[in-house]
Amino acid sequence: MKRRFILFWCLITMFCSVKAQQTEKLYLSGTGNDNTVNWDFFCTAGANSGKWTTIPVPSNWELQGFGKYNYGFNKEENKGKEQGLYKYKFKVPTAWKNKEINIVFEGSMTDTEVKINGQLAGEIHQGSFYVFKYDISKLIKFSDDNLLEVKVFKHSENQSVNEAERKADFWIFGGIFRPVYLESLPPQNHIDRIQIDARADGSLNAQLNYTGDADKVEVELLGKDGKRFGNRFTTPIKKGSKSVKLNHQFSDPALWSSEFPNLYTANFTLSKNGKAVHQVSKKIGFRTVEVKERDGVYVNGVKMKFKGVNRHSFYPSSGRTTSKKISIADVLLMKEMNMNAVRMSHYPPDVHFLDVCDSLGLFVMDELAGWHGTYDTPTGTKLMKEMMLNDENHPSIIFWANGNEGGHNRELDHLFAEEDLQKRPLIHPWEVFGGFETTHYREFNYGIGNYDHGHNILMPTEFLHGMWDGGHGAGLEDYWNAMWNNPLSAGGFLWDFADQAVVRTDKNSELDTDGNHGPDGIVGPYHEKEGSFFTIKEIWSPVFVEKREMTAGFDGSFTLENRYAFTNLNQCTFDWKLKKLKAGDDAAFKSGKADAPNIKPFEKGKLQVNLPSDWRSFDALYLTANAPDGKELFTWSFPIALPKDEAEKIIVKTGSSKVNLKEDAKFYQVSANGIDLTFDKITGLLQQARNAKGVIPFSNGPILQKGVNNFKGFTQKMDGENLVISSKFDKKESWNTLQWTIYPSGWLKMEVKYFPSDYFTTFVGLNFSYPETEIKAVEYKGNGPYRVWKNRIKGTAFGIWKKDYNNSATGEAPWQYPEFKGYYSNMYWCEFIGKQQSFKVVTDREDVFLRLFTPKKSKDTEYDNMSPTFPDGDISFMNAISAIGTKTQKPETTGPMGMKNIYYDFDKDPGRALNMTLYFDFSGR
Predict the structure, then answer these.
(1) What contacts 50, CB < 8 A, 6 or more positions away?
(2) Which of 357, 358, 228, 219 is nearest to 285 (CA)?
(3) Can you give the three-state secondary structure of 187-198, one letter per residue?
């Protein structure tokens, strides 16, 4: 029994000694917006000011109902300059006696004064986004409560901080917005800083700075399974030195990249006289970043194309206060869009975001703040070192950025190389600097100037500036094709990830984007997916599927291009599915898997899908590529049956009744099988459709869009049992022709042959009138469920889609997606479900666009660049549609797909006319 007690006591002692070697933390605040602690609080101005109350920490005080909301563009005299006074009582564990105790703030905006038990902890910290700490060992009490008092100044006393952080294109907040905690270190010997450079060749180089007189440091690496990787190694410390360099060679480490984010845990143990006195653990990844001048950026020896986005630390209900859960959600969405990189705009992020980038695999450009203004050199030096100290060992960080768009204090440039053991490249976003051309929002000028004829590595740190529904996916295919094929291109970063809509506690909790300043995201404020999300997902898929038609001779073979950097396609999986599509019902299907082909990165090859013999009896084939982790990269859809095949199945021409015609000087009045149709005898336009239930309010068409309604000389005749009403073709006066055919079944066929009136035209097609107040929903066969633009066609899927009416505008409340109004591609048929009556339109032509009403035009900038143009009328059937621009570019400057449509035929040859054929079923069945 005595021996058991001694063994138990030894185990307890060993456990306690190991714990004592670790840096210990005691949170005084919560850890994020989902975990807060209430502190006493007093706001000096604005809402709820002038009284002591409580506030959750961390938080931005505006989101808690205090102070004043400000966007960075607000004039200085209108900006809130309130202060927040915080108080919090805390106890310190008695076990921490005789240890060094620091109080750590991970982020406080903007100037922060800290007192412990009435005494200043140190000088006021200036700068919002940086981790700072004070040694408070001599200020705390162990026998009683300690009083923490913090005064936070929203407006900095240092004007350079305001220039760098507050005069910016983003929301300006106040408060202790990131966690606050105490840390306990061994008093005489402890590690202060570890700088790590773990390279792809297995070499581990590190520099360790410490306090005390320890005599050696031991390093051990653990894999994700917790087992030791390689051998421990020990390095002696020269007496009197305060730093030591460590070097060791490991064999065949699993490398870190965005595709395979392999991490190790490195345990650094400081010892004296054979006794471990302090241990620090770091997550590390073996990888090498190299910039080759006039060539590109190489990671682990592979030339990279960065598919990136800019990201703010932001959440609508908590401002800049986020959480690890939000970081995970953000990174997973980026990965779902097949992105491999993210730029921190325009300040360092929460540490948990970098942790998630490390673990899930995302390359990071970390940025010192400076939107257009700069920190002065003393302040910038201090803040840059704080950023480096906190962020330097994350393998995800492969670039540093010194400010943004002119916010570059060049006197700080040398510090990045001096402070960073890894010597990662330094970027000046929006400048030609360091061998990089990063200019923002260039028009589609590939082929001229720097882009194809320059010498720098091309990597715009912002391009295709999203606003409302413009940019992002719109234009990306043209840009990316050019980027992918240009050997000097290293890709780029879209602006930006999520709409910056903040909850206004002073305006009944409405979501506010400050007009058109904040709705720049690919996703909404609460991660609602816009149409561009799926366009990006397809265009940036690392498995590129070459376009192919489901012809009679199709043998199941697809040409693939591997656009991964490190993954062979035989590490992916491929699924296929054949579907028979039926409105209102689940589709019958057959499915299977295809053997993943051996295709190395940047090479092409074949994927063979072994389809059943009856594959042509199905409507569509779907091919899904999955990443090595099993997550979908994209699903491509391929129609098997063409519109003409579908039309033959649907359209009913024969019937038991006859077609009856009555005419007078103005109208043709036709009836068949209970359907009454009225046509204007002069213009040929459909005036009214009626069935037994009453009038269907679909009329006044076809009106040509970008064409002349010069239908003339209408005549009627019977063609067998069918009535045909036709206009006369005349090369000089009536070169556009319209023909109606009414079948005994009551179905109506319309054939229009026409010539656009303009050589360059925004769109072409046919319009009809239908009151928007009458529409309830549509169900259609075609590409969906998201709408398209001429320069944003990709990202949809072929199928049958049911869409209830909504009046959503992209980037505005209620952020309800997919939107209802807009253009839809590859229409086969559409049932218009009205509040009173329904009717169906079918086409036997390929590539018909359906237009549903006109979406709200959100407020553009003064340059009106987006130009989201729609035809006249209410419902349209289009041969060509319009593109959309970005905040900074008009549609035509986003690339060839954004340019206007071109048609040329001065001879008015009927054989070269555009053709639109539609069939109408007004029976209401």
Answers:
(1) 42, 43, 44
(2) 358
(3) CCCEEEEEEEEE
Side chain identity, residue 306: F
63 neighbors 505 (Cβ within 8 angstroms): yes
Name, in order, each residue with C-beta under 8 angstroms of 903's C-beta and a sequence gap of 6 or more. 755, 756, 758, 759, 761, 764, 914
End-to-end CA distance of the chain: 89
Please give the DSSP secondary-structure letter assigned to residue 327. H
Query: What strand order describes the sheet that includes 620-626?
Result: 588-594, 573-580, 620-626, 632-639
Give the model confidence (pLDDT) of 99-120 as tens digits.
999 999 999 999 999 999 999 9
pLDDT of residue 905: 74
Q: Which phi and psi (to 5°) does residue 774 adopt? A: -95, -15
Average pLDDT over residues 230-242: 92
In contact, 793 and 805? CB cutoff 8 Å: no
Contact 476, 797 (CB under 8 A): no
CB 879 within 8 A of CB 849: yes
For 624-681, the pLDDT digits (tens) are 999 999 999 999 999 999 999 999 999 999 988 899 999 999 999 999 999 999 999 9
**Tokens coding 346:** 């325009």
According to DSSP, the residues that pair with 57 across neighbouring strands are 37
Which residue do the tokens 């205090």 mark? 66
Predicted structure pTM score: 0.94
Q: How far apart (Å, rounded) are the C-alpha atoms in residues 316 and 63?
A: 9
- Domains of the chain: residue spans and CATH: 19-185 (2.60.120.260), 190-284 (2.60.40.10), 305-539 (3.20.20.80), 543-641 (2.60.40.10), 650-748 (no CATH), 764-921 (no CATH)
- The answer to whether 347 and 129 are in contact (CB under 8 A) is yes
Contacts of 864-871 with C-beta under 8 Å, sequence gap 24+, read 865/470, 865/889, 865/890, 866/467, 866/468, 866/469, 866/470, 866/891, 867/891, 868/468, 868/469, 868/470, 868/789, 869/762, 869/763, 871/705, 871/763, 871/765, 871/767
DSSP 8-state code for residue 377: H
**Which residues, 6+ apart, have CB-to-CB distance to 92 below 8 Å?**
26, 101, 140, 141, 142, 146, 182
- DSSP state string for 209-244: EEES---EEEEEEE-TTS-EEEEEEEEE--TT-SEE
Strand pairing category for 502-504 and 901-902 = unpaired
Distance separating alpha carbons of residues 380 and 127, to the nearest angstrom: 9
